[in-house]
Amino acid sequence: MWSSPTFAQQSESATRRSEETMSRLRLRALAALSVLLTLILIVEPVSAVKRGDFKTCDQSGFCKRNRALADRASEAKSTWTSPYAIDNPSFAKGTFTAGVANALFPDIHFRLELRFHQDGVARVIMDEVGGLRQRYNEAAAWAIQTTPVLSVDDGEFKVEIGKDASSINYTGGKHEVRIEHQPVKVTFFRDGEPHIVLNERGLLNMEHFRVKTIPKEGDEELVIQDEQHPGESTIIVKEEAYPGFLPTSEDGMWEETFNGKLDTKPKGPESLSLDITFPGYEHVYGIPQHASSLSLKQTRGGEGAYTDPYRLYNLDVFEYDVDSEMAIYGSIPLMKAHRAGSTVAVFLATGSEAWIDITKEPTSKSTISSFRKSKKPSNSTDLGPAATTTTTHWMTESGILDLFIFLGPSPLTIFDQYTALTGRTPLPQLFAIAYHQCRWNYQSQTDVLDVQRRFDEADIPFDVIWLDIEYADQHQYMIWDRRNFPEPEVMQDELAERGRKLVAIIDPHIKRNPELYIYKEAQDLDILSKTLDGKELEGWCWTGSSAWIDFFNPKSWEWWIEQFKFEKFKGSTKNLFVWNDMNEPSIFNGPEITMQKDAVHYGGWEHRDVHNIGGMIYQNVTAQGLVQREDPPRRPFVLTRAFYAGSQRFGAMWTGDNLGTWHHLASTVPMLLTNGIAGMTFSGADVGGFFGNPGPEMMVRWYQLGAFSPFFRAHGHLDTKRREPYLFDQPIQGYIRDAIRLRYTIIPAMYTAFYEASLTGIPILRPQYVVFPDDAKGFAIDDQFYLGSSGFLVKPIVDEGATETSIYIADNQPYYHYSTHDIHFGAASGGSYLKIAAPLESIPALLQGGTILPRRDLVRRSSILTWRDPITLVVAVDLEGKSAVGSIYLDDGESFSNEKGEYIYRELTLSPENGKNLVLKSRSLHSAASQQGLAPYSPTENAWAKKISDVVVREILILGLASKPSCIKRVGSNLGLDFVWSDGVASTAGRRRGGKKASKLVIKDAGALIIEDWDLILDFAVECRFTPAIDYEAALQSPECDGGRFLCRNEGHIPACILRSRFNDGICDPDCCDGSDETDGKTQCADRCKAMGADHRKKTDEEARKRRVGASVRNDYITFGAKERKRLEADVERIEKDIAKLEAREAAAKASLDIMETAEAGDTERKKNSVLFRQIVEMQSAIKALRLQRSSLEGHVSELSGILSDLSRDFNPNYQDMAVLGASRAFKEWQTLNGESGEAVESDEAAASPPASAPAQAEDADKDLTDSELQQLEDEDPLSLIDSLASRVGPVVPAGVSSILKIEDYLPSAWRPKFDEYKKHLLDLLARTGIVNAPGPSSDSDRPELARARAAQSALTEEIHQANQKLAGTREAIARDWGRDWEWKKLDGTCVEKDFGE
């Protein structure tokens, strides 16, 4: 046992120093971790929205004031009185006009107008007259497509103007408005019943323009700050006359700060408040965009209510919350109210921020009683008021009151009137409604084309691939990054060869680069947005320091349109379309990540007045740029994120930066339904979610929903995994493929729904209340929808692990499962739920009885390639088993020729005829189209009809017939049609038979031309002769190919099997050199086989020549190989003997080594059991922990410094806010104080001052050991330390050899090698004789004889290994086939295939 007091004292000292150092490091760690915790609390995780970046009502001055007004009115109840009253009313030329006064401010004047349109819409306008400045009054001009036509014939009205009230009957007496004069109250009636009431609660308040006032003590009135306007804000009537109406303070009226950003409010308060009541209406819808339910929730109490009003303010809210009233990307201030048999709506034309409170209360007895007593017209559909009434409170920051009133009575009437006012969704190009593949970002031209290739290999169709911001050089839009996209035109052409398009993102921010032509031109035209002081507005976005075009300036419109000319937008082609993102606008360092409200636009209007409108104008002029870039023009496609009322005229929108979660998947359907009923029907969500990495199940369910969404695009964030469908394993890839291919088969029905929307404004996805407006049970359902008038009822699966679902059926019609053809029945009285199986591969989609669905069963690579493919009809027979109706619209899918009458629009009907027989008819619907003002139409002679004159309705599938027909024939034909009948449940069977296979009739080849009228008779009595139908699929199938493939025989060349969908797709397939894949005239393919065959024969001839020339040499080569084999066999025998000898020597060396190691182990164990050894090990563990902890802390400090540096450099409110900036500054100060910052600079005074003297012991205590010093202590071998202890602490008998003979420290470096050799021999001799102890055994140090034994044994082992390798190589050489080697490797230095082919 070794014991050394001196060493123990050193040990204690080292331990004490280590504890002191550890204590200091702990203090530093605590400080660093506190900063880190602050950052964690501020920089929220990416899985949730940063609500602190966006205002609540309480943080918005005007909302807080007007909501407080509503609170005071609610508390006052019946004693509440509005100070607004009407004076001098009059009526002339279809317009009611009156003055409006606020008794609290009698010197302030307002004007009220009620205008009446010819289509029955009424318009209420109220504006300040003669004020300090004009209120913003242009919002409606941006939203409205055409100026409404007024009813100016006073004879069409019945007007009564009295002292206390006025009334006006319009639209032939069906509608009436009553205006109560004091306080003002406006009630709109239909058929004698009130449906919309304005200012019933007395919350009307238009804050007039004023000069800032200061209170004067002891005076009930106000002192005016501006002596030139002494009467502008003086209260003449005491506030007690209208208690509670005035705000209790001026907080937020003259300036407002949010998150450290100041809104100067140079015009002062100018908000508008108005309550709108819908008596007897429980459900209200609309006011998108929110991730909320279809039927809007209450915001001031009630079950499931929100605490804030719904907000309309276009904002970049990434990872937005679901089930929330928060404003996101778009704003349409349209609200609809619905009850059984009646729909009404209001549209408030405002471009400013708006908040809407919604409350519900019991319907008054007077309203219910009035309905019961009233005399209703015979054609009234209104089933009376609901037990609940909805009241709303609208609050806008600025602008006039410009309110449109729609009295219905049906949802279809409202759709027609609203979209006639603001514009209908135009028919898009066909590709736009197919599948789009997007990602942030496809990195290069090669990446794009590789995606196309892999889609084709997986036989998954797509029409469009998208490029996010990385395609642009330094994010300078319209300028390609030529390093990654060297030939963008070539890339677009290669996509076009497969019928595909490219979409590139173009955001509204422009890099402030003086060398950038777009920025320079905008500066020269003076069309950039300005700050309050007239300077160019600067903000931060993807381009860094950025400017924004003021698209309210008319000079910007033509300039921007010109940017899309091909000579201007270099690298673009007619195959390129546009994505407008970030157009709220999103400004990273702006308040609420948008533009400051006191920025100034053309005409002097503040940004607060027009904020919600700008994104729509940007999309509009972008679309015009695409239209005007080529002649003849084609329909544009522009996707927008921000939108406003009227945006539907210019393209599609999507729901923004959603998450790949089940909650976001579930929120998608109500969001799309809400957008649709508000006019924005061309909408969709990012399939898979923009953020996150959803699992396979969720991806399948999202694609299944996307397959029925009007806009169908998959998209993902830069940080997400690649999720192209072909990357998934089976069966997931197959399920996704099936969903996409399903979309392509139903494109005819989807395109027809788009056409119907372009005619009437009816949405493509129709909620339950629209299809069944009398069924109260369905008014709040928002998780299922109908697709156009196709009869499709779809209930997407949005719950994890779900394998079945319940679908609500409102009627008693049969419903047929689209995939399985199982038949289900609704309740006799309607309003029942059906349980439908929904395994992962299945989409719960039903066909409503009584409908006919058109589809195309052949799925091509892209949608445009199907234009000459046959049509299939799916007829879902109604409850009576006799009727069904549907329609189909076709045109060229890209040009405006349809507006010239070049299209096909046909109605398809099944109806009874001559008793038991049924007839399926096709008739032109041109008359309906002509009513919409389109050009004269000929169903068979227009240019498009002639182009598709040979397109037929081929297969017809009829579900639910009661019995098998005896004969089916076209009228005018003597022969019947071939068909197949499958027994099953008939539509007349009743509910008890539901859930089983429906009867199915398949007419194999109807051969009915799509452009012509025709009748198909289903005769159930008389049989007829028929010609067997041609099986077109079997005719194309070849036994040489797998199923679903067509054989190109390629005469004179090698045959090839191509997918059936590649036959007659209009593309010359490279595998079909004979052109046999294109036979229908879509395109002419040259016969390339002759040339390819000649090249092939030339190649094979040359290879045959090489074989002939090498035959004789081959024999000599084989002879040489035989001799070489004998030599190698002798080598094998010799090597085997050598190995046996080496193994015997190695075994002896191993035995000797084992004896020495056993003895050494005993000595080592004795030392390890000593107290000193344990103390050394414990000390080294403490040193290691200290070093690692300090290293970890320094790493955290470095990491935090890097984070803060990055945040300072790329300041982006999407990832940080002012709190983060404050934290970074505090952290840097802490670094400086603690000596951790390399950037700390001493002040001159500090540098000049000498360091304060301190005791030497204090200096020693505060001294930190360096990492290298700690590492040195840690790496000492405990056993060697014990052995050498005597030499370290004093002249005791040496414990080992590590501390003696230190003469080498004094030798010249040239002498050291010889000295080291001499020292080694000497120490070995002394150790063997026992004069000195050998170094202690450890992992790094052995006694010389033990080390030599180990080295000898290791050397023998290595020798054996090398001998075995040599033996294996020699045996492999013996097995060599010299003849084969000659053929395959030596001939001409190439590999020659034995069975030569391509």
The amount of helix comes to 25-40%
N-end to C-end Cα span: 83 Å
Morphology call: globular
Low-confidence stretches: 1-47, 218-227, 1237-1262, 1286-1301, 1335-1341, 1386-1398
Major sheet: size, sense and barrel closure? Answer: 10 strands, antiparallel
Report the average pLDDT across residues. 86
Q: Tally the helices: what do you get?
A: 31
How many strand segments? 60
Alpha carbon gyration radius = 42 Å
Structural class: alpha+beta
Instruction: Tell me the strand percentage band.
Output: 15-25%
Describe the protein's architecture and organization:
This protein has 1398 residues and is an alpha+beta fold. 31% of the residues lie in helices and 20% in strands. It is built from 31 helices and 60 strands. The strands form 13 sheets. Strands 5, 6, 7, 8, 9, 10, 15, 17, 21 and 22 form a 10-stranded antiparallel beta sheet that branches. The chain has a 9-stranded parallel beta sheet with strand order 34-33-31-30-26-25-24-36-35. A hairpin with a 5-residue loop joins strand 3 and strand 4. Helix 9 crosses helix 11 (614-628) and helix 22 packs across helix 23 (1218-1233). The longest helix is centred in the C-terminal third of the chain and has 58 residues, at 1111-1168.
